[in-house]
Amino acid sequence: MKLRHISLFLFALAALAARAAELNVFAAASLTDALKEIAKAYEPASGDKLRFNFGASSTLAIQIKQGAPADVFFSADEAKMNDLAKAGLILADTRRTLLANTLVIVVNADGGAAIATPADLVKPGIGRIALAQPQTVPVGIYGKQWLQKVGLWKQVIDRIVPTENVRASLAAVEAGNVDAGIVYKTDALISKKVKMVFEVPAAEGPSITYPAAVVKDSKQVEAARKFAAYLAGPEARAVFAKYGFLPAP
Amino acid sequence: MSAEAWQITWFTIGVATLSTAAILPPGVALGWLLARRDWPGKSLIETLVALPLVIPPVATGLILLKLFGRRGPLGGWLERTFGWEIVFTWKAVVVATAVMSFPLLVRTARVAFEGVNPRLEQVARTLGAGPWRVFATITLPLAARGLVAGAVLAFARALGEFGATVMVAGFIPGQTVTLSLAIYQFVQLGHDGEAMVLLAISVAIAFAAVWVSEYFVRRRPA
Amino acid sequence: MSVELSGLRVPLASFALEIDAVLAGRVTAIFGASGAGKTTLLEAIAGLRRLEAGAVCVDETVVADVAAGVFVPAEQRAIGYVPQEGALFPHFSVRGNLRFGFEAERQYPAGLTYEHVVEVLELSALTERRVGTLSGGEKQRVALGRALLAGPRLLLLDEPLAGLDAALRERLLPYLARVRDEFAIPMLYVTHSPDEVMALCDDVLVLERGRAIARGKPAELFRESERPRYELRGD
Q: pLDDT digit string (tens) for B38-95?
């Protein structure tokens, strides 16, 4: 008994001595809702606090390159992660590809444009299509790749309204300021104000995968490793599935 | 300088010119009213006009987005009545820059009119000149230097507008990208070199504009 | 030509201007210390200030009547106004100032032409000059000429010789006398100088704190004294 008390006491001391870590997690905008829910379970269990910076993976990568204090980077495409890996900014052994996603076309749920097939995007009457910046933001790059593949890119390019990130595209469709948007299926699922009119089949679409890794210059490497590992674990996977993410291929 | 940089530069100058021209009549009129007249609710108008100067530009942009969005009160009406789309077009850029530079113009115009001795206007009246003739031949010429300075200042502000513009117009290449937006984008893309070129152009234009404005303020009438 | 002020009332900072009088002289002096309300009275007659109560009647024409809701705007009253500072338009030349109110089609009294006014006030050397280059005395003469050339039926002068030194005042008084004699336009002449009153005016209204405290001919109200030459009688 005495031993148990002593070890409990020592454990409590150790727990007190170990300051709770605060992790800066830079994650793609499309992960916003899923990660916030994961945080609700993770924070009490681990004792660490999670601070999220959601945005376009391209913007986040640039911020990390310029020295922003990120601990974990969770990107919406491999290219941005490769970029940082090449610059020696991530811990290679922590890099894991965790999720996959699909592209969908959405329109406003309340009286949105009549679109049923991709070809409808070039119909007269469809004036504006929201797509995140096609040169840099992952969902924009994916969208452009797909549209090029189905031969619609050149016709559609004049109607594209480049947005800051995928959630901005979603917001534009929700507000009715554009006729249609190309977003991830997971984004379409969380919004009641848009409806999905077309899902890009896996065979046709680009391969959309989400890698995560610990940032090399992290000041909380141990806590970051722990979180990165948790993201690959069963509890996190269940939450991602709930929001419509597919497991990594 | 690349063709794209030229297009962005001319577009920015064009939008700033159009926006300044659009706010000149109401801005000068309001400046005169604030300088020469009192009425119930005057301080409310003064505060409203000053708002875009003090609240964050993106906040103003958000208000404009709600107003001029397709389903917004003004945007919806304009689309139904004239078929005009405002947000995500060059028209939104003009609206955003006009709103942001309006308070500057009103302020400068007010000061310009307050600088005209009211005695001169009174004497002109006793010489038989009605209110419009007094305004055209006495008030306006004597306030002209200050009004020009105000217009140039408003123009310079319109050139550099970012926060509100980004909210209502987005980054549509060739259609809504101004110098400020392009600089931001190039930095996002990691193209620092091109961003610096546009930065230099912006500084040069703004420098010229403020120089001209100061010239008009400093010059004494003969 | 007469100016009738009935129950005129204009509130001022610490008191109100209240006048009931008929002014019918060739040149009527409005005499009083600074702050007595003299300028306000001129502004009210010229139509540059609204009355709180009462009426102003110029030559049988009602130009303002609060009770009846009448207010003729200044530009329609044909009442000239030469303010204390002259107030020449700085962006016009002297000629531009002189001609500002001049209208060829108007019926001017005989002798009131551009050339004659320039001659009487000796302005011919100045007509092309810019206003900023004129001396104080020259500015006053131009202001006077400008008001005359608008063809007023009544001329209001607010201390035209104040701010000029004694020598200059001596030189300008004759011009004023000439205007009185040559053009026969009735004038209301605000001043706090008894010398000017004696030299130019044939009727005096004395104001103190917004009220007329004395009325009469100059000789009745002023007497000689050592220095200045005249002073207000005590009675």
A: 999 999 999 999 999 999 999 999 999 999 988 889 998 998 899 888 988 999 999 9
Q: Do the chains contact at B65 and A161, CB–CB below 8 Å?
A: no
CATH number at residue A48: 3.40.190.10
Q: Nearest CA of chain C to the CA of B153: how many Å?
A: 25
Give the total number of structural domains in chain A: 2
Tokens of A13: 């001391």
Q: Which residues contact residue B164 at a Cβ distance below 8 angstroms, ignoring those fewer than 6 apart?
A: B52, B57, B58, B60, B61, B64, B96, B97, B99, B100
A96 and A107 part of one domain: no
Domains of chain B, CATH where assigned: 3-218 (1.10.3720.10)
Find, in chain B, the residue whose alpha carbon is nearest to that of A161: B172
Give this prediction's pTM. Answer: 0.80
Interface confidence: ipTM more than 0.95:
no
- Residue A128 and residue A78 in one domain: no
pLDDT digits (tens, 9 = 90+) for A211-222: 999 999 999 999
B144-167 confidence digits (pLDDT tens): 999 998 999 899 999 989 999 988
Residue-wise DSSP of A136-182? TSHHHHHHHHHHHHTT-HHHHGGGEEEESSHHHHHHHHHHTSSSEEE
Structural domain that includes position A46: 3-100+209-247
User: What's the confidence (pLDDT) of residue B222?
Assistant: 41
Answer yes or no: do B170 and A161 touch at CB < 8 A. yes
| Residue A245 per-residue DSSP state | P
For residue C232, the distance in angstroms to the closest alpha carbon of chain B comes to 31
Pairs of CB atoms within 8 A across A/B: 38
Contact across the interface for B128 and C78, Cβ inside 8 Å: yes
- Give yes or no: residues A112 and A195 share one domain: yes
Distance from CA of B144 to the nearest CA of C (A): 11
